Amino acid sequence: MKVLASYNIKGGVGKTAAAVNLAYLAAQEGWRTLVWDLDPQGSASFYFRIKPKVKKGAKALLKHKRQLADAIKGTDFERLDLVPADFSYRNLDLYLDDTKNSDGHLGELISQVDAEYDYLFIDCAPGISRVSEAVFQAADALLIPVIPTTLSLRTLKQLLRFREKTQLSELKLLPFFSLVDRRKTLHRTIIENPPFQASLWLKSTIPYSSVVEQMGTHRTPLFCYANGDNAAKAFLSLWQEIEQTLAT
Amino acid sequence: MREKSHSSGGCERILLPEQGDVGVYVDSLRGSLSLASASESTLRYLVLDTFDWRLFHNNLQLRATKSKDRWFLELYLNCSGTLQASLPVSTLPDFVTELAAGSLSKQISKIVVPRALLPVLEFETKRLSLVKRNAEEKMTATLNVDTSKVRLPKSRIWHSLEPCLDVVPVRGYPKTAKQIRAVLKRSPGTCVSNVDPIDRAVQQLDLVSVAESNSKCLSLTSTQAALPAIAQCLQHLLEIMERNEDGIVNRIDAEFLHDFRIAIRRTRTVLSQLDAVFPGNLAAYETKFSWLSELTGPARDADVLILKLEQFRDMLPSELHATLPALQEFLQYKRHAVYNPLIEALQSQDYKRFKTNWRRFLKRCLAQPTQPSENLLRVSQVANRKIWKLYSQVVNQGAKIEKNSPASDYHRLRKTAKKLRYLMEFFQSLYSSDDICMLIKETKRLQDNLGEHQDMEVQMSSLTTYAKELGTLSDKSPDLLAALERICRQMNKRKRRLRNKFRARFEHFAVRANKKQFKTLFHKKSAAKNSQ
Ligand SMILES: Nc1ncnc2c1ncn2[C@@H]1O[C@H](COP(=O)(O)OP(=O)(O)O)[C@@H](O)[C@H]1O
Ligand SMILES: [Mg+2]
């Protein structure tokens, strides 16, 4: 099972939009796919119309009182399942502190469903915390949506530095530009001359599109109501690029 | 893996009332269960399995669905319909080894290898899906009304299966499906069936015999006259030969030839050991069967070398691993060449005529009275006498073998032990199954040692010949030669180890307890006479 975490220190950059839509594409392609909504706000759960509730909460999972598999809910789509968010996730840091080897612990939990799925998408809460460190340990790659503004780039820099410090060299970082508005000069300039090394960035970008915003009213991945839209095409091309990158 | 929600429904499918219109029934369901409106879809998929349905026998179903420019492979647990693994591929695989390493290949390799995967059935299912949603408009169960037809992949004729209804729970929402099932079971005319559509297809297409295990034993009774009983078994062996011919001719996988050869060897054992039972002279048939053995030998040897490629990898240091593709290509080329004359022979008039004669002969034998008389032996007498004799031979030959005896001595013992095992298996149904199975197992253990020893001999000699041949080629690769030499050296080591182990194995086989057991089962002259 490949573990991909949709992550950024910042909120509102398109992490959840990416996790939900990319997971949908993976499942469509034939892969058994699981999304773990790790953000206590529960947006991913909301998009799949699943109650943001895990019986007995995060603590029971981390203490092995309950199996991760028992928390899984099927979505309306074939091969696509979800571990819902839960309000208790806001205390995940504390529970992780409680357990020995807290960073490896999440990976161990995830390994329970290793044989059942081909892909796991983790939709992370913003911020950098104990939880995000544990996610970095467990993940094969981080999908990092970045809005092409100076401020956003700063947070990416923080993340790059953090990776160096924590010796997570195995972890692939896959940043891509999100919420791109081509009418804005700043957006255009940054995308044409991406900072750090150009090779760091995925080529595909996700445009700013009202269709993506409408996921909130449709409560489905956007392919179910706007399959031909540019944003849909952008996610498809992003997914293909991610698959290729992971294969090498 | 764990699939709690699914197990609540288990295998249950619901068969619709025989009479009446499916559409009308569905409409009424929609009302009474307040289900969201139906969507229609058509599912077309192939079921892939080995020639002898190994996945089916292991309760698995491998479906291949074409979608645009590629295929989805999905592995289901039969009956419960739980998805075990899935994998998108660009072309249908002939062998599991062609699949990317992962969950799917891991789950089926052990079962399938070395057989090829073939399309065995083609399904077309018209599916009406009704959906149950909760207050959030979230789907919590699906009710599929499937009208399926099925056919053999090369056939034009579709067979319709009875429409059936399947309540599919959504994971994590087991209650809804349970409730729907409860309602359906109460509704008049429906009946619950535990049968997977593939089982119904197998029944309807009359594939039961194919789908049944290949190695079925014939059951004999000890008071039967020997001749017709034995002829019946030989007829079964002829059927096995014929069943495997196509697979050999079309070069599908190595198992066809393997099974073909085992049937020949078993037949030859019967002809040579039980010749006294038959009327007339068997020489003509024996000659033909021995011809077939010789004809198929080199092809089997070539197959085995290719099947061993993975083991060769382990025998080579990593710097020689790069030679493996070239070695594989060379071995495949060799195999292609040795299969040619064999295929020609199997398609020849001569071979067909031989089979016709052989079949006629067996028919005549079958027409003999089934009750033993003065001059017709009972089958159990024949079996006891011959098995006891072979057992004694094995013990005598084995006692004389030493670590440095020539390979031919080992080979001779191996052949005798094999005959012993074949006869015991052939007559298995005459004896208490625990007793005879134990002795067959003991014999097999001895044989495994001898068999591997002989395999090493044969393979080393093939590889040495190949090495010489490669040495004379202009574009010879020094690495490939080095690899071959290395493999031979490793095999030689293994051979020595087997020889070292032989004594212990043989002594284990020849222990008094076994001897006593053989004696009780097969050497009971007085008892046999008394019961007449
Ligand atoms: N490509 C996009 N175009 C327009 N709006 C977007 C796009 N991606 C996300 N949004 C909107 O921006 C908000 C934040 O997106 P979300 O995916 O939830 O970000 P995050 O998970 O990083 O907080 C949501 O209201 C979402 O609908
Ligand atoms: Mg989010």
Word description of this protein:
The complex is a heterodimer of chains A (248) and B (532). Chain A has 248 residues and is α/β, with parallel strands linked by helices. Chain A has 12 helices and 7 strands. Chain A has one domain (2-247): P-loop containing nucleotide triphosphate hydrolases (Rossmann fold), CATH 3.40.50. Chain A has a 7-stranded mixed sheet with strand order 3-4-2-5-1-6-7, with helices on both faces. By secondary structure, chain B is an alpha+beta fold. Chain B contains 19 helices and 10 strands. In chain B, strands 1, 2, 3, 4, 5, 6, 7, 8, 9 and 10 form a 10-stranded antiparallel sheet that branches. In chain B, a hairpin with a 2-residue loop joins strand 3 and strand 4 (70-77). The longest helix of chain B has 40 residues, at 433-472. Bound molecules: adenosine-5'-diphosphate and magnesium ion (MG). Adenosine-5'-diphosphate is lined by residues 11-17, 43, 179, 206, 208-209, 212-213, 215-216, 231 of chain A.
Per-chain topology:
The complex is a heterodimer of chains A (about 250) and B (about 525).
Chain A (H helix, E strand, L loop, with lengths): L1 E5 L8 H15 L3 E5 L5 H5 L9 H6 L5 H4 L1 E2 L5 E4 L8 H7 L3 H10 L7 E5 L6 H9 L2 E6 L3 H17 L5 E6 L7 H8 L17 H4 L1 H4 L11 H18 L1
Parallel strand pairs in A: 1-5, 1-6, 2-4, 2-5, 6-7
Antiparallel strand pairs in A: 3-4
Chain B lengths: L3 H4 L5 E3 L6 H12 L2 E14 L4 H4 L2 E8 L2 E8 L5 E7 L13 H10 L5 E16 L5 E13 L7 E2 L3 E6 L4 H13 L4 E3 L3 H8 L3 H4 L14 H24 L4 H20 L9 H25 L1 H7 L8 H23 L2 H18 L12 H22 L6 H20 L6 H40 L5 H32 L2 H11 L2 H6 L2
Antiparallel strand pairs in B: 1-9, 1-10, 2-3, 2-6, 3-4, 4-5, 6-7, 7-8, 7-9
Helix pairs in contact in B: 8-9, 8-13, 8-14, 9-10, 9-15, 10-12, 14-15, 14-18, 15-16, 16-17, 16-18
The structure holds adenosine-5'-diphosphate (ADP) and magnesium ion.
